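Teaching assistant here, posting this on the class forum so everyone can see the example we discussed in section. The complex has two components, and the goal was to see what a joint structure prediction looks like when all of them are supplied at once.
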Amino acid sequence: MSLSPHVSHAASRIAQAVVVVLLAYTATFLIINVLPGDPISNMLLDPDNGFTPEEIAPIIAYYGLDRPVPEQLWTALSRFVVGDLGISLRSNLPVSGLVLDALPSTLTLAASALAVSLLLAFLIAYASQNLPPRLGQGLIRAIPSVSLAIPSFIVGIFLIQVFAFQFGLFRITSPDSFAATLFAAIALGLPVSAQIAEVLITNLDHEARQDYFAVARSRGLSRAALFGRHQLRPSSLPVVTMVALAVGELLGGSLITEAIFGRKGIGSLVQGAASTQDFPVLLAVVSLAAVVFVAVNLLADLIYPLLDPRLRRRQAARIPAPDAETLV
Amino acid sequence: MHIDRLAVSRAATEILRVEDLSVAYGRQTVVRQAGFTLEKGKALALIGESGSGKSTIAKAVLGLLGRGEAKVTGRIRFKGEDLLALPERKFRALRGRAIGFVPQDPQNALNPVRTIGSQAHEAARLLDLPDGEAERRAILDTFALIGLADPERVYRSYPHQMSGGMLQRVLIGLAVLPRPDLIVADEPTSALDVTIQKRILDLLMELRGALDLSLLFITHDLALAAERTDEVVVLKDGAVQEIGASGQVFRAPASDYARRLQADVPALNPDRFRAVARRGQEARGGGGMGIRVEAVSKSFHADGRSLRAVDEVSFSVAAGRTHALVGESGSGKTTLVRLLLGLETPDAGRLTVDGQAVHGLSRDALRGLRRNLQLVYQNPFTSLDPTWKVRNLIREPLDQYRLGDRAEREARVLDTLRSVGLSEELLERRPAKLSGGQRQRVAIARALVLRPRVLVLDEPTSALDVTVQAGILQVLSELQAAHGLTYLFISHDLSVVRQIADTVTVLRHGRVVEQGAVEQVFERPAQAYTRALIDSIPRPRRAESAPAPARDHSYQS
């Protein structure tokens, strides 16, 4: 009870986040178990391999696949909690190692895509407010909805065709070069930037209609100061929400973008694991996605009160209520 | 060196001269060739109802009209310079520094995500002080000057941590901080409680004298304008109806419109609806109790604190009479209404409506009670579902209570619509196509269609203009006379209460301060708080000599 309200709020949110991740793991585990067969039988019962079911049984027992599903789940969960992701059925290597090898490439791509999308969204939104109508403000405002309509893989193919093949700005044979990463990030970030820009423009328009915007203007503020302090700052809250949601999209989209740009990342790992029913790897990747998504949303929740003082209500209550008698 | 003497003497006395000003949004002209002059050090009021163009003129003077959306012609000379001819960059240098602005609604006039101090620095920067610390001192000095008790705390606070009255003080402080010559105040007190209104206006007038400010004051309140300004410009539909010294226009208005405004100011005509109400009451005689509230208390708990919203309140209303609950925000009047409607349960005490206890009823009995007890909300702009037609809005209660067949319901809807003074061609309209007064009449019709015995009117005219308000009060008086309705009238506007109510309860912090017959409470208030409330009714200079004609016989709503 002696904890400050802010800390105890954060603690309860973190506890919720942990529960969500465990539920996501459980759900994935159960879905995989509903699929027909088990990976060992699928691999070894191929007539070409010449194994009989009697010979396979001990192997299945070794991996614990003959146990009832709840017991298997319990074993898997208790390992997951301490960070043991198991052994890949295909390569016999620890799954954690496989994931850690693939992760940097994907994280680099997703983070660059987020940076690109924020930058583009900000530029579009700034132009939507400050460009004179005569200089194509309407055109700027149309960009988000148009670019939303174009799927990112088309953008990717287009970018490769034009900038790799025509202009030779990057080589697809070295997909991890800076230029190749940048163009992959543009392909991935463009639809996300459109979503963020739409939300941002709507909110900037809303702020510009508020009384306090007019009052601030009557104080002789410059366009730039008005934009930064009285439009952008109050509009930043929904952008944080949008970014938190966009992270899921960036993770999903990166699998496709990696395939198009020939990058070795989580995408290729998943692809391989899915085609060979390498359950531990699939489980690990899905859980990882859940952890990232939950963590980003948790972060967004904790950022809100920093951006908007009205959301720090428990703390506000500690300031004594103004006494109308003496102060007004 | 040749100097034009006339121009010099003019420049010395004139601060603002508006000539032939017209403003149009698209095809809609909202200001038509308006012109007036404000002399240095004087206060001038632009008065008119919503849609009269008064706020648009204020915005034009401040250069806040969007250049793309509004078409502005004419001249606005500020110290001889035509503001309309200035490019935005040069105009910006005048904003704050030369022309300050005090807005209407203080709750939304400061950026909610930044501290008051940081917004005050925006104004202090215009003083060209050497550093931030000097600016800070100037800000704290100004906060002290405008009567804020703890300037340091205000400086650190966010807007949502302060009351409306304090925020309006801050906004006035921010407007006067850069020492402008002219202040434009757009209905600076209409969103505030009455006693605070008076203090804010006193502050504005004090600062005007101390800082040698000229004041352009926008208001819909003729009495307020007459009390606080030297000259008034009466506007209607964007055109100037009359210009003159405030006392003159107030005492002897020359234009028809100003005369009508004067007749509709409640403070000037306290007995306007008295005759109608008396007639109804005499025709019926006494008839039991409409509402009885006995020693009712109610507390709320939040964040570990407890608030006594209503504290041992008792009053009763005779059937067919009007009782007013008067109080400022936080006085407990809204909680009392919710208790009376059975939306809250009292901690102690008893409420009866038309002889029936409100609490401890079964669901069906409460439903039956509510048929007899209807509510008219404060804001007709939000209380009607915008997607419904007037016909359905009024008929819904009949459908809910399954009264009569289809034809009977239709007939009752039409009947009720006419009784509130609306014609049947409005039946197919939706609220967006109605004026504020028409909307409130629809809301009243909706409440009346069940033929209740008791009507709770929660500030039914506070969102409306005075002439529209007068029409609504007229309709309410006639309906009461015709059907013997009991009204519980919630208001913060004492002059309206004086006009419409028979008895009154003054509430403060959940307790009864004073109650009794309206004439007695108003003429011989026993408590200091009641006196303060009554004193806050605007009283123009020499108002005693003003003729107060009872014009209700000639009034057509």
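For the discussion questions: The longest strand of chain B covers residues 289-302. Chain B has 21 helices and 20 strands. Think about how each of these relates to the inputs above.
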